[in-house]
Design a protein that fits this description.
The structure holds two protein chains of two kinds.
Chain A (H helix, E strand, L loop, with lengths): L12 E3 L3 E4 L3 E8 L1 H8 L12 E4 L2 E7 L2 E7 H14 L5 E5 L4 E7 L3 H6 L14 E6 L2 E9 L2 E7 L3 H11 L11
Antiparallel strand pairs in A: 1-2, 2-8, 3-6, 3-7, 4-5, 5-6, 8-11, 9-10, 10-11
Chain B lengths: L2 E2 L8 E10 L2 E7 L3 H7 L6 E2 L6 E2 L12 E4 L6 E5 L9 E5 L25 H5 L4 H15 L16 E13 L3 H12 L4 E4 L9 H4 L2 E2 L2 E2 H14 L3 E4 L2 E6 L4 E7 L12 E13 L3 E3 L12 E3 H11 L1 E2 L3 E6 L5 H9 L3 E7 L7 H8 L4 E2 L2 E7 L6 E6 L9 E4 L2 E5 L2 E3 L2 H5 L4 E4 L4 E4 L14 E3 L11 H14 L32 H4 L3 E3 L4 E2 H9 L5 H8 L12 H12 L3 H4 L13 H5 L16 H6 L2 E6 L2 E7 L6 H14 L2 E4 L4 E6 L3 H8 L12 E7 L5 E11 L2 E6 L4 H15 L6 E4 L4 E7 L3 H8 L14 E6 L2 E6 L8 E7 L3 H12 L5 E2 L2 H10 L34 H4 L2 H4 L4 E8 L10 E7 L5 E13 L4 E9 L8 E5 L5 E7 L14
Parallel strand pairs in B: 2-8, 9-10, 9-16, 10-13, 16-30, 18-26, 20-21, 20-26, 21-22, 35-45
Antiparallel strand pairs in B: 1-19, 2-3, 4-5, 6-7, 6-8, 11-12, 14-15, 15-16, 17-27, 23-24, 24-25, 28-29, 31-32, 33-34, 35-41, 36-39, 36-40, 37-38, 38-39, 41-44, 42-43, 43-44, 46-49, 46-51, 47-48, 47-50, 48-49, 50-51
Helix pairs in contact in B: 4-6, 4-11, 7-8, 8-9, 13-15, 19-24, 22-23
Classes of the chains: A alpha+beta, B alpha+beta.
Chain lengths: ~180, ~1000
């Protein structure tokens, strides 16, 4: 099957004052339940339970706070289905829900110093005060999105798969050369 | 005549000449000019015609307050009407045209209105055209529309060529206004450690301090401005924006900034305008003040301008307003203009001062420069028509019958004092108080705008606060206080000190001369743009208008695009005088955002073209697009209505697709259907509450169709539920209803049943889903292989999961067409591959995709209802004969109580039936069945309506469903439906299920 699976916009890339690229398929698992109980199941992965609006990382996996009773586990796409089953098994009998949502999403990578400036045109977020280790659920243009700092050079944005083209167009327009707002210091 | 001086002009670059055109005439200016400055430099005194009377109009001001010099700018896709020449920066190739003239600017036939001004007094629309009634629409309105109005709308076919964007920004302290007060406030706040944003609407820092000769720490203000801007630029916690107007202040420190990024450089890469959506902890406004005109006869004749504007043009752009000027004033400030003109070597004929004795320092300096001062006097009238040729002077306290001096001049500078620009203070609730000494409304410090915590969140300083002398100390305080209010702990350095001339108090003059006779008053303009005169406001007062808000609307005073920036105070002073009450008793009209008009493009921002709205796409969207899909919007999705093949009409395509499902096999992209996971120990109980029928008894591996109602019992959504295991269900919703139903579930779980152990997860987009429907459906799927889909292994209304041709699939044995049908769900990433595989596998079986219209016809042939067709928010399940899906065993479910209301039990309710036209034609959608008799309004009674209607290619005739009074009891009755042009279409009431009533086809 692996040759027949496709992310929403394979290979899409635009180069403005930010380089916007679709990041391909990423594994994502929604976990709902009491965070303390979820932490028990997640402990073997070496991931710390993130504080409110935070994201923690361990190797190729990261764990993001979504709401007081929801976490998002991000991991390589190929691991997602199996991990979903494993976590469901771990949490059997608990009031907890584990769902593979990898295919419901599209992920974009934003590289370049102006990434925050471009995002400021789309999201009501104070990016100057946005630190690595934070994740922000917000909106971009007219759709829902979540944003975090991947590293010093890159920010990542996740949205629903069906609006991937809309999001790519938004990000491309927001980073058009000549429209730099020179906002973040 | 007005002209450019040989030297000077602090804002222009004489090494960079620019050419532009006005009404097709080529002219030239310099880089740094405003359009108004270069028009004046070319002696273009006449720039437009007024709204009602088509009077010749010249430039009055030098900034955002300009009421007259509005032009059409650009052409074609870049044409924009009503652009202020005074705030338009000149660029190479600029094309401007004057407005509201016919046939041309110099010779305007509609100026005939001016000869009969009695016709057009206050409230003339209301009075003159009341009778005869029909004349308004057919005679008066077309004439008025032709003669009134300003700019013309862009051509309907043109499309804005520019890009616009919005941006969100945050600051501890937002300072609006980049004059010396604003700069100082920003500096103080920044030094205290606050994160500061500073906006200035013009292209230059420092405001009018350099023009007015302000000195700071003993040096020209310009030195301090340069140093302060450099210092602010070097600070990491400061954001400076030129060409960015504070347009509005809204609740909780939310401010809008209108940045004209590239108006001065059209066609560049940059967006044209950028709208800043700023959330600030504290706001400081330092927006300066606006000079007031004086109301004397002929004050609108080209060549009469504000005294401050005169010296702006002179000092900033080296443009002389004329060769010989008369200045008329009631205060000392205007003497600055007289002195500046004299210093530039221009003629100052006289300063006409309303005050009896003029002894201040500035007048003395003027006297010393040899300028003649005529005290205790005013202008009786201006001479000239399209430009000033002279003035007649009279005693200020007179009726203006006798002329005391005849002066020849070609320019008149007027000053009636200054009004603080309090607009932003007022936008969010700040109140004003009347300043007895300064004769203006100023912000009331005890009634400031407040934030969410009830504390002051906006401060105001400098001239905007009514401080017309030294401002730096006050600005420093505003900046430090604002910073402290946001928690900044640092200390600002000591501020510099600015000088202030010792100015004598002004003497208010609202009408010049004070007892002017009617003949003069009807030539005194208050609102230049809307042609409102002193006599109009007085007339309104005589007719009983007392409220300033009513008078504004009756006379249109202050209702033009300048929103009364010049006319406001003069107008309400005249009104107060006419009403015999003090000005504060009259009050002022409400200031509302935006400060000056902002472009529609900035309001729309980036939401245009491809990204006007999000378009949701399924994993198979591109295939549909490449294969002839005729799109239909469904929520924010686009779904194929049908797929047209070469030469096919829509109808032909729909008929082909519909028949193919009954005869062979069709594929439907059902990915848009809502798919919500409901899980948890209390999930069965929750499902029983959501649905009208029983869901808790559903066995894992089975599916059940269910109905959801709102609290009132009205049908809201429907779909198939699959039970995944003991504690989890997969809820399928309608395509358009997915988000709403998910929200509805969360609403109940979070607000009402918060202690129930249920989770919901919206998995709509996790799965691509394909309906494979038709007698050959199973054959297609068997060719993919891997899953036993036989009748016994997967009976009707069962589901299973596993590998289907290598895909990770769930197969639901459900049917919305009445045919043998499977819905195959796979992870979205596999969706396109599945679609391709099904097409390939089914090729020799005649597989073809079908769209939403075929889906509708197929379900209508089976009598299946559709949410949104058979329902409209007033329909309960019982109306649709769905009583079988309403549990009688359950104690409660959402909508149960609503259904028990008397009106819902009424046997006369319209109920679902099938309809068959006697002639086989297709009933019009929504057609009403007409019953005998008429109601109280003389309308025909009705007894039913069509809810779904199609041509059925399988039955070869029109089929329809409808809601009919006591319908199911009246099988066989013939109803009369009203068609277009009073045509009556007869249709018989029949069973809505027209094909395979026993369900044999789907159960094979």
């Amino acid at each position: 099957m692996s040759d027949q699976i496709a992310s929403a916009l394979p290979g899409a890339e635009s180069k403005g004052f930010v380089t916007v690229a679709e990041a391909g398929l990423c594994g994502m698992i929604t976990l709902r339940g009491d965070l303390a109980r979820l932490s028990f199941a997640l402990a073997p992965l070496g991931l710390e339970i993130p504080a409110q609006r935070a994201i923690t990382q361990a190797g190729e996996r990261s764990l993001a706070w979504m709401s007081p009773d929801e976490l998002l586990l991000m991991l390589p796409y190929a691991e997602a289905a199996e991990m979903t089953g494993k976590l469901q098994e771990e949490l059997r009998g608990e009031f907890a829900t584990v769902a593979n949502v990898s295919d419901a999403r599209a992920v974009f990578s934003l590289k370049g110093e102006g990434a925050r400036d471009a995002l400021a045109k789309l999201c009501p977020v104070d990016f100057a005060a946005f630190e690595p280790g934070e994740i922000r659920r917000t909106r971009a243009g007219q759709v829902a999105a979540a944003i975090w700092v991947a590293d010093a050079q890159e920010m990542r944005l996740v949205c629903f798969r069906s609006v991937a083209q809309y999001m790519f167009d938004l990000l491309t327009i927001a980073s058009m050369p000549g429209s730099e707002p020179r906002l973040c210091c | 005549m007005s002209h450019r001086l040989a030297s000077g002009g602090r804002l222009i670059d004489r090494t960079a000449p620019l050419s532009f055109s006005f009404n097709g005439k080529r002219m030239s200016g310099y880089k740094g000019d405003t359009l108004a400055a270069s028009l004046l430099a070319c002696d273009q005194i006449l720039v437009g015609r007024s709204f009602k009377y088509h009077r010749p109009r010249g430039i009055v001001a030098s900034g955002a307050e300009e009421p007259n010099a509005l032009v059409g700018l650009g052409s074609g896709n870049r044409f924009e009407p009503n652009q202020r020449a005074t705030t338009t920066e000149l660029f190479e190739g600029l094309r401007a045209s004057s407005q509201n003239h016919w046939p041309n600017l110099d010779f305007d036939l509609l100026a005939v209105n001016n000869l009969v001004p009695q016709f057009l007094t206050a409230g003339f629309y209301y009075k003159t055209f009341l009778w005869p009634r029909a004349f308004w629409k057919h005679v008066y309105e077309p004439i008025i529309r032709r003669s009134a109005g300003l700019g013309k709308a862009p051509d309907a076919k043109s499309r804005d060529a520019d890009r616009y964007e919005q941006i969100y920004a945050f600051a501890d302290v937002l300072v609006i206004g980049g004059g010396i007060a604003g700069l100082q406030a920003a500096l103080a706040a920044a030094e205290a450690g606050a994160r500061v944003a500073l906006w200035e609407q013009s292209a230059h820092w420092g405001g009018r301090a350099p023009v007015d000769g302000v000195e700071i720490d003993g040096a020209p203000a310009e030195d301090w401005i340069t140093a302060t801007v450099e210092r602010l630029e070097s600070m990491e916690n400061v954001q400076l924006r030129l060409r960015c107007m504070g347009a509005g202040v809204h609740d909780h420190g939310y401010a809008l900034g209108y940045e004209r990024v590239s108006d001065h450089n059209p066609g560049s890469d940059a967006p044209r305008h950028r709208l800043w959506r700023m959330r600030a902890g504290q706001i400081v406004t330092a927006t300066g003040a606006i000079e007031r005109p004086l109301s004397f006869a002929g004050n609108d004749i080209p060549g009469v301008m504000l005294a401050s504007a005169m010296r702006d043009y002179l000092i900033d752009y080296a443009v002389a307003p004329g060769g010989d000027a008369v200045i008329v004033t009631n205060n000392d400030d205007a003497y600055r203009t007289a002195i500046a003109l004299r210093r530039a070597g221009l003629g100052v004929v006289a300063v006409v001062d309303a005050r009896a004795e003029v002894t201040g320092a500035l007048p003395q300096a003027a006297r010393d420069a040899g300028i003649r001062i005529i005290e205790g006097s005013g202008i009786r009238k201006i001479k000239g028509s399209k430009r000033v040729t002279g003035v007649e002077v009279c005693a200020i306290d007179s009726r203006g019958v006798a002329t005391t001096h005849q002066l020849t001049c070609d320019a008149v500078g007027m000053s009636g004092g200054w009004s603080p620009a309090v607009h932003l203070w007022s936008h969010c609730g700040g109140k004003l108080t009347w300043d007895e000494a300064g004769h203006f409304f100023r912000p009331d410090p005890d009634r400031a705008p407040t934030g969410a915590d009830g504390r002051q969140n906006l401060r105001i300083c400098g001239a905007a606060n009514g401080t017309l002398g030294a401002v730096l100390a006050e600005a420093h305080d505003a900046g430090t206080q604002a910073a402290a209010a946001t928690g900044a702990k640092g200390r600002a350095t000591k501020h510099a000190s600015d000088t202030s001339h010792d100015e004598a108090p002004l003497e208010p003059v609202w009408i010049m001369p004070r007892q002017a006779e009617y003949k003069l008053r009807m030539k005194m303009w208050l609102d230049y743009q809307n042609d409102v005169k002193v006599s109009d406001v007085q007339l309104a007062a005589r007719e009983g208008y007392q409220s300033v808000e009513h008078t504004k609307r009756y006379t249109t005073l202050g209702m033009a695009t300048d929103q009364g920036k010049l006319s406001n105070i003069n107008g309400l002073a005249v009104l107060s005088d006419a009403l015999g009450q003090p000005i504060p008793a009259t009050g002022t009209t409400t200031f509302r955002p935006p400060y000056t008009p902002i472009s529609m493009g900035a309001i729309a921002g980036g939401a245009v073209g491809e990204v006007f709205q999000p378009l949701r796409r399924t994993p198979m969207h591109d295939w549909h697009e490449a294969n002839g899909a005729d799109w239909e919007p469904v929520g924010q999705w686009r779904r194929p209505y049908c797929y047209r093949r070469d030469g096919e009409s829509r109808t032909q395509a729909v008929n082909r697709e519909t028949r193919n499902v009954r005869e062979a096999v069709g594929l439907l992209d059902a990915s848009t259907l809502g798919k919500i996971l409901v899980s948890g120990p209390d999930a069965p109980r929750f499902m029983d509450m959501l649905y009208t029928n029983m869901m808790s008894t559903l066995k894992p591996g089975k599916c059940r169709y269910g109905l959801m109602c709102n609290e009132n019992g009205f049908l809201m959504d429907d779909g198939v539920v699959a039970r995944l295991d003991e504690t989890s269900f997969l809820v399928h919703t309608t395509s358009g209803g997915a988000d709403h139903i998910h929200g509805w579930m969360e609403d109940w779980l979070q607000c009402e049943w918060w202690d129930w152990k249920v989770h919901t997860v919206n998995l709509t987009e996790q799965y691509a889903q394909v309906a494979v429907a038709g007698p050959k459906a199973r054959q297609v799927l068997e060719r993919l292989g891997g899953m036993d889909l036989s009748r016994d292994a997967l009976p009707f209304m069962g589901w299973t999961e596993g590998k289907l041709g290598g895909f990770d699939a769930r197969a639901f044995r459900i049917s919305f067409s009445g045919e043998l049908s499977f819905e195959i769900a796979v992870p979205a990433a596999q969706g396109r591959a599945l679609w391709d595989a099904l097409l390939q596998a089914g090729e020799s079986l005649g597989v073809m995709p079908y769209g939403t219209e075929a889906l509708h016809i197929l379900r209508a042939e089976k009598g299946f209802i559709m949410i949104g067709d058979e329902t409209d928010g007033t329909v309960i399940p019982q109306d649709l004969g769905l009583n079988w899906a309403i549990s009688k065993k359950k104690e409660d479910f959402l909508g149960k109580r609503g259904m028990e209301r008397t009106a819902m039990q009424d046997p006369e309710r319209w109920k679902l039936v099938g309809l068959e036209t006697l002639d086989g034609s297709v009933l019009p959608h929504g057609a009403l069945a007409v019953a005998p008799g008429r109601n109280a309004n003389g309308q025909a009674h009705t007894e039913g309506r069509v809810t779904s209607t199609y041509h059925s290619p399988n039955l070869g005739r029109g089929i329809a469903m409808g809601l009919v009074a006591r319908g199911p009891e009246r099988m066989g009755a013939v109803l009369r439906f009203a068609g277009a042009q009073d045509k009556i279409i007869e249709a018989r009431i029949v069973d809505p299920v027209l094909i395979d009533k026993d369900g044999e086809r789907q159960n094979v």
